[in-house]
Amino acid sequence: MDINQRVAVVTGGASGIGRSLCLALASHGARGVVVADVDAGGAAQTAADIEAGGDRALAVTADMSREDDVKALIARTEEAFGPVGLFFSNAGIIVDGGVEVPDEAWSRIWAINVQAHVYAARALLPGMLARGEGYLVITASAAGLLTELGSAPYSVTKHAAVGLAEWLSITYGDQGLRVSCLCPQAVRTNLIATSHREVTEMPPERASLGTPQASVDGVLTPDQVAQTVITAVQEERFLILPHPEVATYEQRRAGDRERWLRGMRRLQARLGGQG
Ligand SMILES: NC(=O)c1ccc[n+]([C@@H]2O[C@H](COP(=O)([O-])OP(=O)(O)OC[C@H]3O[C@@H](n4cnc5c(N)ncnc54)[C@H](O)[C@@H]3O)[C@@H](O)[C@H]2O)c1
Cα of 125 to ligand 1 centre, how many Å? Predict the structure, then answer.
């Protein structure tokens, strides 16, 4: 899809991948970029940076885990710039731990990492299907194709996000809805800075490579990820893998699940994680 002159909304636009996406969309000619985030100050800063470059932006304070906020975000976007052409459902959090994580934290991460995408699709679909076009990009993670060592809530919710993106693409792909699913490994943002480990979602192949920080596949910058997303959207590719190695890891997982699980256990033991 051509980004030029289209209205774009990015959730989690105050920081990290979302902020870089906002700036990249503006520089690719979006008619208006709506920066949505719970962090009002951060969203305002991203919008101000876009406007300083001569492009149009609007900051909206919204909690994507609340359906009313999602509906209001889309309504405000339409008032300001017109129908939503591209919606990047990107806000997400990580919670470390396993099944012992309290229900409140499971509910919170489920609401943000999964249900927020459901609310966005629910609000966007009628208009996009009526117009016969629209683009929804869901930020999942390589953890949604593989796993996240040390975080059951992140692994589970990111798998669910991938499942939702695939389901939407299958169900509405022939009616004009475009769907992409962004699945990066490590990206240098606040999310991994606040997590207990720097580099996540490593495949078993890297068990011999030492500390989690020694990621062979590299820690990307959010700007690099945003550039990959822009190209994928222009080409209308479903699966966006800023770390291309993830495609091989996913094939290996599907090809021999037992071997993959054994390898992940070995990696976890070497890293001194749970279990
Ligand atoms: N950083 C990584 O290594 C990495 C890897 C794979 C996937 N991801 C995913 O990328 C997405 C963006 O994360 P990031 O790394 O840029 O992190 P980040 O923490 O820098 O940015 C996330 C933004 O989302 C906002 N946010 C959180 N909860 C929200 C809510 N309920 N409503 C609205 N906004 C909310 C935060 O305020 C923040 O500005 C997330 O979905 C994350 O899971 C990140």
Answer: 23
In this prediction, residue 271 has a pLDDT band, given cuts at 50, 70 and 90, of confident
In the chain, the N- to C-terminal Cα span, in Å, equals 45
Question: What would the pLDDT profile of 147-163 be if each residue is shown by its tens digit?
Answer: 999 999 999 999 999 99
Name the token pair of 105: 């934290």
Q: What is the pLDDT of residues 5-17, one digit of tens each?
A: 999 999 999 999 9
Ligand 1 pocket list (CB less than 6 A): 11-12, 14-18, 37-39, 42, 62-65, 90-93, 112, 139, 141, 184, 186-187, 189-192, 222
Q: Please state whether the predicted TM-score (pTM) of the whole model is above 0.90.
A: yes
Q: Helices marked H in the chain — which ranges?
A: 16-27, 40-52, 67-81, 103-110, 116-131, 152-172, 190-194, 222-235, 245-255, 257-271
Paired tokens of 4:
């030029």
CB 112 within 8 A of CB 64: yes
**β-pairing, 177-182 with 134-139?**
parallel
- Per-residue b or e along 124-148, where b marks 16 or more CB atoms closer than 10 Å to that residue's CB: bbeebeeeeebbbbbbbbbbbbbbb
Distance 12 CA to ligand 1 centre (A): 6
Q: Please tell me the residue having the least CA distance from ligand 1 atom 24.
A: 12
